[in-house]
Amino acid sequence: MTKAMQDVIDVRHLIAGEWIASPATDVTTDPYRGTAVARVARGDAGVVDRAVAAARAAAPGVAAMPAHERAAILHRAAALIVERAGEIGETMARETGKALGDATGEVRRSQDTMTLSAEEAVRIEGSHVPLDASAMGSGKIAFMLRFPVGVVGAVTPFNAPFNLACHKIGPAFAAGNACVLKPPPQAAAVVDRLARIFEDAGAPPGALNVVHGGADVGRALVADPRVDFVTFTGSSGAGAAIKAATGLRHVALELGGAGQTIVHADGDLERAAPMVARNAMRLAGQSCISVQTVYVHRSVLARFTEMVVAEVERLVTGDPLAEGTDIGTLIDEAAARRVESWIAEARAGGARILTGGTRQGAAVTPTVIADPQPTDRVVCDEVFGPVVSLVGYDDIEAVFRSVSESRYGLQCGIFTASNAVMLRAYRAIRTGGLIVNGTSTWRTDQLAYGGVKDSGIGREGPRYAIRDMTEERMILFNM
């Protein structure tokens, strides 16, 4: 840990280009060491009101900026992200317990998010509608053009605090909107670093406003009718509450998943086992597409299980800041206790714990479970911890039905050498994405990312987010 990182970071709200303190503060804590990382201004409904008013006032100016100017600011932000990645990664590892390599990697990857947003800022286009297909339209000309919605309200989670904030503010600004961002209280200092990058890149005052606080601040933000569009990443329960609160306003909700992956009889086990093991445990399992339930054809189940357990046991757990650590802690001890209780529930129902299953403070040892019940929460709910369950099957069609009937539908992986099986899975499984010869855990920033059912509404990725953060307007010329 560097000397600078040992100091407690002062985090304030950003409103209309000014850094604002609050009388009350909260403290973010290193879940591995238990030490204070940041002292954070605690917002309330009044602070939210000021931030939304600032965004509303700034929105016309942001919309009027030429696209190339918005793109230039985003390109400068991307360069600053790379320049400051080491410092921000260390802050993230301290606030979230994420292994330093993963934390720094998340920050560096966010260069892509900002660069893609910059590139899409100059590609927002409309269309000509041919009207001479009908007698009424003959002789007339119509165009459909896209315009910014105005004010975007964004609420982001702790598990990828930097990159997911980039996925909100990058497309929002690229589309010509002003934004009010409510970061996760557990990782406030990480998002503060991003806000300062955006300011240093030349964003005009009010284009990005940041309000810190708990769930009450998020509720005030999404309920404010001056917010034209709400984008949220988090739990399915919170997403449902946001949908209820926003009424007729549009939303994008990236919610939970159950991380199903299928290993068929003809799948490449040498490829599948390491990917399953590492993608189940990476980030301590705190990813909505983390591998959670793996359906394995019974003919290869024993061998595959042996390979996964061996790979999991090679992972290095411990101090998130130590070089070589693969798995750090969960976000806090309460989260670790919940995961521990779900493992105990599966064991009580007859499941076998093949490795792991213990907890120390906020850390849970990487856990492999065999023979869980379909109703165990480690199977049917989102674990959000370093736990993977292996389930044998004989009939792959039954697996397709089981995955499709899950309340979640974010992403699914399948390992098979058969094009016929792959295509059948693609047609049969109701999910946001299917990863062939890979696990559920895969995302690149230029693709559409999102789910169906309780996994959400809409798609992320700059191109697709910009589509949601703009609205179509028709103009008709009577010639």
UniProtKB/TrEMBL annotation:
The protein's name: Aldehyde dehydrogenase family protein
Highest taxon, organism lineage: Bacteria
PANTHER family membership: ALDEHYDE DEHYDROGENASE
Aldehyde dehydrogenase domain boundaries: 27-474
SUPFAM superfamilies: ALDH-like (SSF53720)
Keywords linked to the UniProt accession: Oxidoreductase
Family per similarity comment: Belongs to the aldehyde dehydrogenase family.
Pfam families reported in the protein's UniProt record: Aldedh
